Q: What sequence folds into this?
């Protein structure tokens, strides 16, 4: 058995699970730190109004030595190109599916963005087959105003295969810039670094392992070309897609040379399943200025930042006075939670601090954060219950499924209707014994209460993905603007999503 952390689960009882950690040579509790042998790569940037990304197989440098890794990519790189656009109308992204035929149809969702249902990259209705393309219209406006500066990301959202397709590499970042943010004099240029943190496991030949190979890939789904029937019968070959190697912008244990100045780091956890509780090895504070969905009202000093799948944090790290030091960004176990999704001890990347340099950046104490919906309705209009359904499916097979309100996802069933133009207050409850990360499409939300209390300062901006521990209750509010149609709410641990923990709500007139 190689060193690493392995999740195990019962195929028929997804609630029956655990995590096994095997220490590396030396056997100590503290895993050895890698030697950080390769430089961090920042993905190429796309700034145009009409962007074309070809999904294709490519060989990418993941591990420092040996063969490159064959992945499914957006445009030949993993992560795909980082799209940078100013808020306001006129961004079109065309996705062409030139993946190997066996990959089947795909769907690309821009996570965090507000756009029409037809441009949402939904799991069943907007599939792009092999050889075909689709153009997504991203107006980057909310209720007639430019989308505030944000850190979104795009990824495959194909029903039942989202974990597989993301593991294979269909992920990229999307930064919305805005003029007031530019006026802030936050670190820019090469001192504004997007970091996509994810994890994979590799074979001896440097290829991705296939956690999805253990059983029939689709016991209930499609012909691989877009037509689907859903029977609600989940028999997952894999219910916890974890890897033993953490990648940053696609590379294992990279280093980044930095000047002894302030840096803005945009942190994204794009792992299918795992969480990271990020901290700096010398105890240096992390100043969080935003979520992925805009700035916070005030910067928050944090010693660690816990990010579950799809969660983002916009942070400032000050390297001044540290010339010559090597500082490791690492994940440490989080003191909370109970599940295999929880953050473990692992190194992420290294900063090598060079000479001092002039630093025009400034850190205002108050930030121009986007307005939150107000007043918040007193009444909760919808409670979503995240749980595990035990028992026999209508298909007659025994087993369990991850559910919302006791039901597996059915793209043809409307689970809630919200009226366009109104503000709704929603409640999430977790009745299962593991943590979930709840994500909502279409709108950005105000977090109203976490367990009956005012949310912590880092949850006081706009948000689209929340940690929900067993027994926890979170309440959120948003106004439904601009678009009608079907949208999704789901757990962003992709195995849970693929295995039924997703629901549909429709915004209606
Ligand atoms: Cu990041 Cu519905 O997804
Ligand atoms: Cu979950």
A:
């Amino acid at each position: 058995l190689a060193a690493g952390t392995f999740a195990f689960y019962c195929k028929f009882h997804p609630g029956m699970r655990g995590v096994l950690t095997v220490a590396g040579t030396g056997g100590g509790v503290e895993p050895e730190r890698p030697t950080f042998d390769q430089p961090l790569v920042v993905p190429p940037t796309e700034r145009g109004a009409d962007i074309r990304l070809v999904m294709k197989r490519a060989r990418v440098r993941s591990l420092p030595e040996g063969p490159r890794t064959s992945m499914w990519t957006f445009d030949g790189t993993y992560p795909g190109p980082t799209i940078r656009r100013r808020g306001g109308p006129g961004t079109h992204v065309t996705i062409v599916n030139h993946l190997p035929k066996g990959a089947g149809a795909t769907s690309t969702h821009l996570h965090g963005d507000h756009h029409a249902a037809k441009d949402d990259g939904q799991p069943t209705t907007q599939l792009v087959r092999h050889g075909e393309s689709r153009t997504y219209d991203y107006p980057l406006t909310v209720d007639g105003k430019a989308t505030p500066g944000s850190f979104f990301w795009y990824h495959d959202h194909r029903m039942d295969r989202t974990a597989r397709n993301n593991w294979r590499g269909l992920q990229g970042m999307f930064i919305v810039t805005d003029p007031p943010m530019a006026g802030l004099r936050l670190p820019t240029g090469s001192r504004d670094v997007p970091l996509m943190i994810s994890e994979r496991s590799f074979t001896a030949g440097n290829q991705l392992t296939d956690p999805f190979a253990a059983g029939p890939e689709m016991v209930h789904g499609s012909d691989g070309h877009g037509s689907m029937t859903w029977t609600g019968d989940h028999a997952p070959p894999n219910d916890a897609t974890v890897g033993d190697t953490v990648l940053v912008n696609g590379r294992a244990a990279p280093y980044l040379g930095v000047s002894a100045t302030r840096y803005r780091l945009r942190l994204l956890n794009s792992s299918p399943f795992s969480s990271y509780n990020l901290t700096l090895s010398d105890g240096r504070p992390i100043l969080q200025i935003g979520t992925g969905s805009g700035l916070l009202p005030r910067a928050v000093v944090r010693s660690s930042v816990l990010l579950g799948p799809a969660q983002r944090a916009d942070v400032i790290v000050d390297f001044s006075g540290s010339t010559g030091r090597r500082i490791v960004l690492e994940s440490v176990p989080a003191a909370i939670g109970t599940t295999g999704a929880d953050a473990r001890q692992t190194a992420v990347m290294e900063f090598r601090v060079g000479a001092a340099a002039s630093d025009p950046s400034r850190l205002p104490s108050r930030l121009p954060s986007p307005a939150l919906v107000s007043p918040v309705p007193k009444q909760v209009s919808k409670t979503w219950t995240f749980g595990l359904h035990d028992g026999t499916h209508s298909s007659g097979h025994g087993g369990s499924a991850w559910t919302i309100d006791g039901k597996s996802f059915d793209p043809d069933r409307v689970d809630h209707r919200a009226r366009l133009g109104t503000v709704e207050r929603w409640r999430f409850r977790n009745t299962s014994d593991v943590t979930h990360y709840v994500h909502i499409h279409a709108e950005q939300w105000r977090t109203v209460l976490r367990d009956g209390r005012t949310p912590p300062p880092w949850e006081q901006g706009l948000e689209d993905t929340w940690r929900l521990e067993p027994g926890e209750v979170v309440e959120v509010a948003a106004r439904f603007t601009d678009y009608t149609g079907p949208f999704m709410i789901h757990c962003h641990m992709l195995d849970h999503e693929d295995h039924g923990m997703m629901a549909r709500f429709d915004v209606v007139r």
Q: What stands out?
A: The two ends are 57 Å apart (CA to CA). The domain at 39-172 is CATH 2.60.40.420 (Immunoglobulin-like). Residues 1-28, 215-236, 392-398 have pLDDT under 50 and may be disordered. The pocket of copper (II) ion (ligand 2) is lined by residues 436, 491, 493, 496, 501 (CB under 6 Å).
